Known about the structure:
The structure is a single chain. By secondary structure, the protein is α/β, with parallel strands linked by helices. Helices cover 33% and strands 25% of the residues. The protein contains 7 helices and 10 strands. Helix 3 (98-108) packs across helix 4 (114-128), helix 4 (114-128) packs across helix 5 and helix 5 packs parallel to helix 6. The longest helix has 16 residues, at 173-188. The protein is globular and about 50 Å long. Adenosine-5'-diphosphate binds at residues 11, 19, 37, 39-45.
Amino acid sequence: MIEFERVWKRYSKRRDEWALEEISFHIGPSEMVFLLGPSGVGKSTLLKLITLEEMPTTGTIRVADFVADELTRQDLPHLRRRCGMVFQDFRLIKDLTIHENLAFCLRMTGTLERSVIARAVARVLQSVGIYGKRDRFPRELSGGEQQRAAIARALIHEPPIILADEPTGNLDAETGNEIMALLQRLRVSGTTLVVASHQEPLAERFATRTMRLREGRIAEDRFLRPVGTEVY
Ligand code: ADP
């Protein structure tokens, strides 16, 4: 599902500073991989390489059925639709209701028929438990509800992969656990999840695997529990 083969990444040609060095791994369906490590070790860079928002300096990246080197400009939107993104700060559009936020994503990718949009939005909002809040604006929702809306948005194209950058970073512990439980449900139904975080207790509870980054390298790749349909 996601494969890195000896991937190196630096942002600037001039300086010999590598954000990531010699990264190799394979992540399959129903894995929930936590990328662990303090700020600056390369977690966000790794997520941006998966969506090819950033390109590797060297090495091979395969995501879903796409290979980084072989992609054309037209492939990028298709790849992005295969990877739902969730962020620490939710990134909902503040002047749009929750329904409109999600409908906007569908319209951007060419779904224009109102009834199709309404059905798709209702389906994902029901699946994250905030269908009743669909006509509210983001500011009228709690942090946990906003993150549920952001997860619903990530799910709108039924992606096989969800990438989350510190998804519980702005939430209290209890709400963070609820959000992780929701992501866990997606994993159990076959979605591949990669979560950048520095919250070790969440990784212990929810991850099937942890990759610890240190100075741009994978210092430890640990399998915590079998991948399957169990909820822990
Ligand atoms: P983390 O997500 O673990 O905090 P990042 O992936 O954001 O780490 O950063 C890894 C390294 O890459 C850091 O040294 C950071 O300064 C550098 N970096 C990240 N993004 C950029 C960028 N757009 N331009 C230049 N350097 C960057």
